[in-house]
Amino acid sequence: MVHTVLRRRAGGESVEQIQPDLIIPTGKRKRQNPSVASIYRALAEHAKREAYPEAVAQAHTDFATCFTVHRRQTERDLRHHSHVTPW
Q1: How many other C-beta atoms lie within 10 A of the C-beta of residue 54?
Q2: pLDDT digits (tens, 9 = 90+) for 40-79
Q3: Has residue 23 got a pLDDT over 70?
Q4: Which domain of life is it from (predicted)?
Q5: How far apart are CA 6 and CA 27, in angstroms?
Q6: 48 φ, ψ (degrees, to nearest 5)
Q7: What is the full DSSP assignment across 48-81?
Q8: What is the pTM of this model?
Q9: Looking at the domain assignment, is residue 85 inside a domain?
Q10: Rounded CA gap, 12 and 34, in Å?
Q11: Count of structural domains, the chain
């Protein structure tokens, strides 16, 4: 969606003109149009990612580390409690 908006804005269209042509592909509002505010939020998030790519990369690394630690703890807990029989 963001790339479509960026491309069409570069062509001179406003977000308000583009909004009716956009369709939400998944989720609760599937097949509906996003609000103008949602489009502006997505554009702001895109601009932030473009301005601070190192922060995005660090966030991905931090998430991967947390996910790995959590997975290892879960596996350890399952091994530790595997000898316990359920009631």
Answers
A1: 7
A2: 999 999 998 888 878 778 888 888 888 777 777 777 776 7
A3: yes
A4: Bacteria
A5: 23
A6: -65, -45
A7: HHHH-HHHHHHHHHHHHHHHHHHHHHHHHHHHHT
A8: 0.60
A9: no
A10: 20
A11: 1
